[in-house]
Design goal:
alpha/beta, Rossmann fold, 38% helix, binds zinc ion
Length: 228
């Protein structure tokens, strides 16, 4: 093996060589996948009635790229995902000047495993530091395998505020809106400390949500497409 091959191998170790969205040889997200990550904000709601603005559908390329960021260290996807999250956060905040953005805390184990917190990373890329007012306290586990009601029960008591939040207003931010149990629990913890929660924002939403399908019939949510 020549010097050139050795250098290329070293280069491949240093930089990603496939698009995080589709796997095409590239050093970052390809143009086609970047275009698919254009945000389309929509307003949804949690079971607890919290207004949530989402930017992307959690499927296809968006799902692949977010998983690549979360599980494969593909932080080169940060800029594009950050732009989508910013669109959702901006709409959730609206023109309220006093609102603070607070990221749903990740567990210590997840932070240790990744070395970074994806939501804070996405917020940090827009130079907006999330208010560090919540901490994870419960031992919530294996949300993926649980139904909507079980998720809510699993999440209850998962977060606590670090301080008295009287007089402060918040928008809660997370990466994926699934059933909404996590956002509801974060809102509960903020309100329990005296804070006001004006809404939430997530990068993406899971199109096939049990809670949304159940509630679509009541006209509250407008089904998987959301309401604007
Ligand atoms: Zn691609």
């Amino acid at each position: 093996m020549g010097l050139r091959d050795a250098l290329l191998d070293a280069w491949a170790l240093l930089l990603p060589v496939e698009c995080a969205g589709c796997g095409e040889p590239d050093r970052a997200l390809c143009g086609a996948c970047t275009a698919l990550l254009e945000p389309h904000t929509a307003v949804r709601a949690t079971p607890g009635g919290l207004r949530v603005v989402t930017a992307l559908r959690y499927e296809g390329v968006a799902r692949a790229v977010l998983l690549a960021l979360k599980e494969q260290g593909r932080t080169d996807a940060t800029a594009v995902l950050s732009r989508a999250l910013r669109a959702a956060v901006d709409r959730a905040v609206g023109d309220r000047p006093r609102v603070e953005v607070v990221a749903v805390p990740t567990s210590r184990a997840a932070y240790r495993r990744r070395g970074y917190d994806p939501v804070t990373l996405l917020l940090g890329a827009r130079r907006e530091r999330a208010a560090r007012v919540l901490r994870a306290v419960g031992r919530s586990s294996a949300q993926k395998t649980l139904g909507a009601a079980e998720r809510a029960a699993n999440r209850r008591g998962a977060f606590a505020a670090r301080a008295d939040l009287s007089g402060r207003e918040f928008v809660v931010v997370d990466d994926i809106l699934t059933t909404g149990a996590t956002l509801d629990e974060a809102a509960r913890a903020l309100r329990a400390a005296g804070g006001t929660v004006v809404g939430a924002a997530t990068l993406a939403f899971t199109p096939r949500l049990h809670a949304f399908r159940d509630n679509a019939a009541s006209g509250d949510y407008g089904g998987a497409k959301g309401v604007n």
